[in-house]
Amino acid sequence: MSRIAVLGMGAMGFRVAQNLLNASHEVIVYNRTKDKAMPLLEQGAIYAATPREAAEQAEIVISMVTDDDVSRTLWLDKENGAALGLSKNAIAIESSTLTVGWVKELAKKIESQGAVFLDAPVVGSRPQADAGKLIYLVGGNPEILSQAENILLSAGGAAIHHVGSIGQGMAMKLAVNALFGIQVAALAEIIGMLSKNGIEPAKAMECLAELPVISPAAKNAGNLMLAHNHTPMFPVNLVEKDFRYAIQTAQAVKALAPASTVVREIYQEAITKGYGDDNITGVIQLFI
User: Fold this and answer.
1) 3-164 falls under which CATH superfamily?
2) 219 belongs to the catalytic site
């Protein structure tokens, strides 16, 4: 049994903490508002008033928050940042979806204090977290990963891929999300075009689903579109943020990203039209 701090009680962070509790680990949780953590506290989790306080009590600290700005405050706040509470032997794990540049900067800050760092974002959303089927994409020292592997599996992982050095796990995650977002936007556009040519969306998906041009992920997204089920699992607001980060990551190494740039504009339009809190599949509302 390990003492693990989980920072951020959003949809995914809460589930990670729940999975760790279910695996009989001692879990310390931090969130800006305590009420989101209450169901976990009732099951034995320990609440920390600040990220620093959480880190001071833990061997492993996992963060899962929305963006670079929140991550920066969480780890590096001058008074209450989690980095200030890390012991020399602690492992800091950033599982949020962030920019590669920020992750590398954060790693240097943490390592300069004698702790170690992994970027370990996940592929999967709420259902996968609940079912223990998340896929971790990890950047960092493989020896450190071997020490944290069982914890990541307990947190809801079904598979762990060591992608490479620090930042490369995050680069792969941004690539995965961009590829998925491009597929969903393209499928929404195609269904809209076919619908306006007199082919019912259900018939369009029936045909497309039998062809090798469609991925399993796009097929599932198409079925949600047909059901008008846009309950947020990967909200449009976060999709747009991840495209922005993917483009920034490409620009930092002078890589071209024309497809991501154009598709990001589609999700921006969806936000403008009021669909930002919908699941990614809500983008179809622009085309039907």
Assistant:
1) NAD(P)-binding Rossmann-like Domain (3.40.50.720)
2) no
